[in-house]
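# step 3/5: fold
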Amino acid sequence: LTGITDLYLFQYGLDFEDAIEKFKAYVGKDLNFTSFMTFGGYDMRLLHETALLNNLEEDDFVNKIFKKNIDFNQVFSKFVRSERNEQLSLADACKLFKVEIKGTLHDPEYDAINLAYLYDAFLKEKGILRDEYLKVIKKNPHLPASLLKALKKLTSEGTLTYQEFIQMIDEEVK
């Protein structure tokens, strides 16, 4: 799936401790204003398993990665889902937000780059986000905050315009 073979790892790979040290040097020592973003839980599960295998489960830096990890798919999927109400893949999410896929899918470096571009588009493309969120609301059996707010306005004042409802959604996706 990733295209990373045993031969590639033998020729170019690092052992886990060396990789962590290089990553630590790359991100710096002060992690107070640093977050680590993933798209799904697989990366953190793999990091946990590899840390255990290398006796680094108590390493401060590795534990900070766990504590400061943001699974962007968990945030994203609250607002955007497939037609079958399922989470989107990174590739499908990028396509939806008109993010041109860089490099090869499932290559860790390019997945990180594509995730950064998706995150940026998610923050900037409020029209796409709103339209997709409206689809989620229509299919969701649980009531999101914006719908609850709309229902409260309807029941207390008796009216709600479409524009007022869109404004409630825009406030929620800020």
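# step 4/5: annotate
The beta strands are 36-38, 69-71.
# step 5/5: archive (pending)
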